[in-house]
Amino acid sequence: MTTVEQRAGQCPATHFDYSPIRPVGAYRAKAQALRDDGTPLWVNTQSQGFWMVSDPELVKEVYMNYELFRVDSVTAVDPDLDPSQLLVPLNINPPDHQKFRSLLNPWFSPASVARREAVMRENLRNLVSGFSGLGRVEAAREYAAKVPVLNLLSFANMPIDLAERLIDLVDTFMAGFSGAETPVGEDGIRPGMTSATDEINALMGSVIADRRHNPLDPDMDLFTSLVQAEVDGRPLTNAELTGIGLIYVVGGMETTRAQLGWLMYHMAKFPEDRRRVLADPALLTPAIEECIRYYTVIWGVGRKVGLDTTWHGADLRKGDMVYALNSVFNCDTRRFADADSFILDRKPGPNLSFGRGPHSCIGMHLARTQLRLAFEEWHRQIPEYSIEEGAELFERGSEITIQSLPLVWQPA
Ligand code: HEM
Q: In CATH, what number is assigned to the domain containing residue 195?
């Protein structure tokens, strides 16, 4: 089969590795440069080569044309999904996708999230109390990463003492997902990512086994409800259940951690914005929406081409990968006035941070609620703070996560 590069035609080639750790702001600057260049479709020669989609309208098409753009793999540099890394329902194509999605929807609805708010708030209040007297914390790990893990563990009635281990495992998993720190060996395996996935799967497998033998109230416990659920008149297989467990852990933790890291970074770096929100709490919701747009965490999504066709002049072949850039959509000047500025009270417009179409993020209400509670509970105890002088800040690629964020304040 010919490579994407050999079929580039009029499509310009570029070699841009979207995974490494770079200085903070580098990936946003790259998205802006791609926008300003205006080329709609590139051939990116990274890895096996893939089509990189930067025109906002085409990015939307990739999400919506799910018959052509399949979710058999959602990693542009990795066309062949390792079965142990199956994410359910993300790696299930419509129409079967809906069968799994409908089992999960009730758990992530606004009403269901609201019922959990008091527990989440208490988790966060205790977390902040643990370091508020110290005057310094490395907020990327000790706050942004801990907030979602504590909430997800209590949400699923899992032991809280798994938090530290899960943070490490998800870190290793994500580094491998982006190819950043555990490059593919000659055997095609990323050792760190594989062992992290195996351990997360084993851990979620034991939760699932436990819920089979010691069921909790299925109206109150996600994994009890799932082991008792059916699709097409049969129970879910172990692979399907662990696939849900895996995305619950990695999808739920890393993205929220990244977004909260950016919210804290922004509020520390721009104290005038922070003070405006503290003076007028009604600004918190638009500020969170702007953070979700401006600091786009999922730089782009991958899809696998389902059939040979010509698409906007590109000679697509079944099995090619495409990479559709949310980040360019989110800084489109036709959609967002003054798109390169963070406007605290911007009237929210539809962005692509939570995706679009059948696979749009099921956890968006949970994520937004956690961001709001995390802002409120931090500032209740630490209203004034700044980034430690001299700190050099870096972000990981692919899923754009700030690597460390040392914050300092005057303890009360
Ligand atoms: C700010 C935080 C979050 C961001 C930016 C985010 C972003 C996204 C995006 C862009 C997608 C679409 C991926 C694609 O189409 O390839 C997605 C899907 C998904 N997200 Fe999130 N997410 C966040 C939080 C969460 C949370 C808290 C959970 C649950 C615990 C979650 C669970 C999922 C699941 C299960 C899917 C797949 C949905 C499907 O295939 O139907 N996410 N997310």
A: 1.10.630.10
Length, in residues, of the chain? 412
Cβ neighbours of 369 (radius 10 Å): 20
Model pLDDT, residue 209: 96
Q: What total of structural domains would you count in the chain?
A: 1
Asked whether the predicted pLDDT for residue 353 surpasses 70, the reply is yes
Binding site membership of 223 for ligand 1 (Cβ less than 6 Å): no
Phi, psi of 401 (to 5 degrees): -120, 130
The residue whose two tokens read 């996708």 is 97
Phi, psi for 225 (deg, rounded to 5): -65, -35
Peptide bond into 95 cis (omega under 30): yes
Q: Residue 208 is part of which domain span?
A: 5-408
Taking the centre of ligand 1 as the mean of its atom positions, its distance from the CA of residue 305, in whole angstroms, is 21
Q: Determine the residue of 103, 241, 255 to mutate for testing ligand 1's pocket, defined as the one with the most ligand atoms within 8 A of the Cβ atom.
A: 255
pTM exceeds 0.90: yes
CB 12 within 8 A of CB 43: yes
Would you say residue 364 has pLDDT above 60? yes
Cα 66 to Cα 226: distance, rounded to the nearest angstrom: 26
Among candidates 25, 282, 264, 242, which has minimal Cα distance to 147?
Answer: 264
